[in-house]
Write a structure and sequence with these properties.
Elements (H helix, E strand, L loop, with lengths): L1 H20 L1 E11 L2 E10 L4 E12 L6 E9 L5 E9 L1 H16 L4 H9 L3 E13 L2 H25 L1 E2 L4 E6 L4 E14 H13 L25
Length: about 230
Amino acid sequence: MMKWVLLAILLLTVLGIIILFTRVKVFLDYFHGNDNDHLKVTLKAWGGLIKYKIDVPVIKIDDNTPSIVAEKKTETGPDETVKKDETTQVDKNDVLNSIHDIRQFLTHIAGFHKIIRGFLKKVTIRNIEWHTMVGVGDAAATAVITGAFWAAKGGVVGIMSQYMKLKDMPVMTITPSFQQTISITSFKCMFQVRVGHAILAGIKLVKYWKGGWPEFKSKQLSALSGDNTNSV
């Protein structure tokens, strides 16, 4: 009996070590073309054996109400056989509630920015491709906007390289269109991080939590709020 217990403990220990050292790859693919937006996020681990994809093919303004409608598709499994469709409507109150929840979250964690910076230093970013076509119908204004876009892209990539491990040079282009009004952007990249580093960051967030449980307002988090104000 003792042999089986020791064997089970050994197997669980080995499995735990494997999980901690497992690298998770996050593929981000975003496309904006005038009034159409498409966002796809794919998570892979163990060579694609574990796969989770979130596909937001439509992000548009509702014609009847001042809100944004997003149709989300979720696919899981190595062959993407388990699928789920969901439509979400976001209005001004949802945005304000989300901002409130973020502030609540930040005020309850001591040294939040330090913890996040430490975690991001463990994240590797590769295969950045950022292509843009822009035009406003006026040559002079388009030239100014093109220069501003180059500065903005350089600033964003600079921030990424400062906080994360940038392993290769980004591929970026900006194509000005002097004759027509157009706005097209395509952004792709891949993030990679070990599960152990993510777990360690989560433990630090819990460790430095203070001031009890926050009062969330958004629909997704309001169910978690309660009257319990004991410190963690």
